[in-house]
Amino acid sequence: MTENELAREAVDIAYQIHKELGPGLIESVYEEIFAFELSERQIPFTRQEKVKIKYKERIFDKGFRTDLILGDKLIIELKSIEQLDKVHHKMLLTYMRLKDIKLGLLINFKVNLIKEGIHRKIDGYL
């Protein structure tokens, strides 16, 4: 699947979960259910993958983890908070740059309409 096809599937999953469960759960529950839906659709993914940082020829891999990576082509960061801050958007872009992945979705489930909680980020060109 292409980045855009994976993103369409992810958005569909987000809509489905939000419609069924609403905005009141914690992030880890949404992540667990999101992973279940990805498995059901046979979409390859990893959870809580370390984000390695290279600095002066050394590799540091402590501290940062992505929520979900689909097909090594799309990073998904899930939130369940009242309001996203600029730092959440910047973190996703940083993860994308460090993992060399061009497309990312920041999804906040704590909204009345899920379309208001989905933010698409592109690093470079697709």
Automatic annotation (TrEMBL):
Pfam family for this entry, one: PDDEXK_3
Superkingdom per UniProt: Bacteria
InterPro entries for the chain: GxxExxY
Matches recorded under NCBIfam families: GxxExxY (TIGR04256)
UniProt-recorded name of the protein: GxxExxY protein
Organism, as annotated: Aquiflexum balticum DSM 16537
